Amino acid sequence: MALKTYKPRSEGMRFRVSSTFEEITEKKPRKSLTEAIRKHAGRNNTGVITVRHRGGGAKRRYRKVDFFRRKDGVPAVVEHIAYDPNRSANLALIKYEDGEYSYILAPEGLKQGDKVVSGSGVEATVGNCLPLGQIPLGLMVHAVEFVPGQGAKVARSAGNEAQVMARDGGTVTLKLSSGEVRIFDARCKATVGAVGNKDWGSIQLGKAGRKRYLGIRPTVRGVAMNPVDHPMGGGEGRTSGGTNPCSPWGQLAKGGKTRKPNKASNKVIVKRRK
Prior knowledge:
By secondary structure, the chain is mainly beta. It folds into 2 domains: 3-201, CATH 2.40.50.140; 221-266, Ribosomal protein L2, domain 3 (Irregular), CATH 4.10.950. The chain is built from 2 helices and 17 strands. The longest helix is centred in the C-terminal third of the chain and has 6 residues, at 208-213. The two termini are 28 Å apart.
């Protein structure tokens, strides 16, 4: 992925940095692999806002991404590298030998015409999906399952990867991009390589309107509100709020532990994230 900057013809373009999309080859998404997205603007089934700062945004369709890679032993060819408006990573449209199409996450270095395959005993090359117990130590992987057959859950966003550190019996130890070292079942599937589009984090929207296109509404600071609206509001002149940082409902925002001390997955975490 390459980035481009703009001449400051307006204030919105002065600091704008966007993708060139030079690796994208798909002109239109494959309709059979998409479905409509109904927007809820952060509201639940009773119409109450449960997630603030959501609403509006450009219309888009969901791409059905295959996080299971169930067609074991059937080779597929990469037809296109595709854009996905719903995630930071790009997708790869693959066509299996039996004629079926599917979207998968596009790893770094995967190009049009490359061949990929999934299943036990396949070669550990970029784009191939196989059980963690068969991947050589030191290799980078992405789209890792927590539970065998559950579908990929770990390392799915742009530029993410996990490194295979050790293998012991029926378990494999991975180092995640957060710095956490975690034990996985050796039967869990993972795809070789890092997720592509690694420069996604360097994109600058440039203006508030482009945030609205994404369906994200403005966020007002608590200290800028009145006391009736927020515990940190009010005061003569500029004040820091007069109370510890908290949510509009008084939940403390800093310093409190958010992970349950007796969570079941504690036993598989060898080292906590940074």
